[in-house]
Amino acid sequence: MRLLLWDIDHTLVRTTDFDREVYLRVAAEAVGVEEPRLPPSGAGRTEPQTVDALLGLNGVGPRRRRRMLPHVLERLREGLTADPDRMRALGGVLPGARAAMRRAAALEDLFVGVATGNLRGVAEAKLSAFGLDRHVDWRRTGYGDDAPTKTGVVARARRAAGSLRGQPFPAERTLLVGDSPADAAVARAGQARVLGVASGRASPRELILAGADAVLPDLADTGAFADAVLRLLR
């Protein structure tokens, strides 16, 4: 058996404008300013890492950040899951993602889960809002609140998937599909093979240099995607 793990943001869906709205609202409430500063793109970071960076950028010291983090993350979770209509209005499914997910789910001897920096609940909300949730097994998943880094999130997803079959999934039988250098670095860390998708901010070259085993420009060519999956997991 083999395991495929989907990244979500900029790989399957783009919800940047919706996320920004929620982050600005939650950050303003947390730090008490009308126009809080937001960190650069959170691509490849877990949600806790992004919130920690946000609080630091707005003058919150390390000790106070640790105290504030659980509450701010919960407010963020509430905001990002509260309005799927708004999420759909401001976001969308990336080209080919829906067909690629259907194809992956239909491949023989392949379990399909998620490895995302999103919080538990937020990941489900994003895929559910766009009708993509039916193509993954949420029991085989790692979330941003499971581990501080994307590599740790993938390790958590592998353990979860392995516990369901009674034996671990080896890294060479696990494939992460993602768009960021942090996703690609999972291969260098020995946690999975990585199929980079250059639908985010990173170029194909940047993904290869970061450690991706192969790169597609996007998911628009379902046949090329399926061929890459089978080649990397054979």
Q: What are the main properties of this structure?
A:
10 helices, two-stranded antiparallel ribbon, 8 strands, 49% helix, 234 residues, 6-stranded parallel beta sheet, alpha/beta, Rossmann fold, 2 domains
Order of helices and strands: EEHHHHEHEHEHEHEHEH
First-residue to last-residue Cα separation: 10 Å
The whole-angstrom Rg is 17 Å
The number of helical runs is 10
Mean pLDDT: 96
**Counted beta strands:** 8
The CATH topology of the largest domain: Rossmann fold
CATH H level, superfamily name of the largest domain:
HAD superfamily/HAD-like
Largest sheet, in brief, is: 6 strands, parallel
Content-based structural category: alpha/beta
Q: Roughly how much helix do the residues carry, as a percent range? A: 40-55%
CATH class (first level) name of the largest domain: Alpha Beta
What would the principal axes of the Cα set say about the shape?
Answer: globular
Poorly predicted spans? none
Strand order of the largest sheet: 5-4-1-6-7-8
Please tell me the CATH architecture of the largest domain by its name.
3-Layer(aba) Sandwich
Strand content: 5-15%
What count of domains describes the coordinates? 2
